[in-house]
């Protein structure tokens, strides 16, 4: 890939973002650009990013006025990266649940796929430090979402993925409405329905390092009903 981008949505990630950006730019990925999509975090995440832009000229910041959810942040971020000539886009969290050392491997996978899913459940369960309750929700949620939608993948709710630019362009991002897990499932589902080549690459997922989770019951319920909507209405 000639112009790889990493897109990271942030909300109150001041404690993680500095190290994450540094780790990404020291992976020796040729021509890498990084985009932070921040929803006006009250903790000043954007100030940290602006401070680092002098050091890393291919670090970009897309600041938005208020918190609009993960899905909306990704749609805006993907659009920005595509407009700036990205030919491959990695999406990941800021909190070190996704390991920056895995980015090159996900990008490499795109040589033989249109979408690479970083999968926590390819080899049993590769999740570190999650409370049992959280793990059960995730494992059950994945089995449920795959069964209802028919998607033949082990991890359909994960958020660490690599996209070919052409795949994202074919998706009509402006009509993706879902947030959180639902967003991940809907993007996979649309890609799968288009007959694109999707591959899973095993990753190890670790509980967030710093800061607070933005997971909510409404995000889980949204995904719970969304899978039926996808199955029935496509
Ligand atoms: N721009 C933006 N980013 C968000 C929003 N909600 C979450 N994020 C970011 O999306 C990524 C994933 O959110 P997390 O809170 O880590 O959600 P999670 O991984 O399901 O839960 P935890 O790891 O337990 O916190 C993180 O980088 C968040 O900062 C939002 O509304 N807007
Ligand atoms: Mg997280």
Features:
234 residues, 41% helix, binds guanosine-5'-triphosphate, binds magnesium ion
3D architecture notes:
- 41% of the residues lie in helices and 17% in strands.
- It is α/β, with parallel strands linked by helices and 234 residues long.
- It has a single domain (4-233), classed as Spore Coat Polysaccharide Biosynthesis Protein SpsA, Chain A (Alpha-Beta Complex), CATH 3.90.550.
- It has a seven-stranded mixed beta sheet with strand order 3-2-1-4-7-5-8, sandwiched between helices.
- Strand 2 (33-38), helix 2 and strand 3 form a beta-alpha-beta unit.
- It starts with a strand and ends with a helix.
- The model has no long low-confidence stretch (mean pLDDT 96).
- The site of guanosine-5'-triphosphate has 20 residues, from strand 1, strand 2 and helix 3.
Main beta-sheet annotation: 7 strands, mixed
Calculate the terminal CA-CA distance, rounded to whole Å. Answer: 31 Å
Query: What is the tally of beta strands?
Result: 9
What's the CATH topology name? Spore Coat Polysaccharide Biosynthesis Protein SpsA, Chain A
User: Would you tell me the structural class of the helices and strands?
Assistant: alpha/beta
Q: Can you tell me the residue ranges where pLDDT is under 50 for at least 5 consecutive residues?
A: none
The small molecules bound here are: guanosine-5'-triphosphate, magnesium ion
Structurally, how many domains make up the residues? 1
- Helix fraction, binned, reads 40-55%
SS summary, helix count: 8
CATH class: Alpha Beta
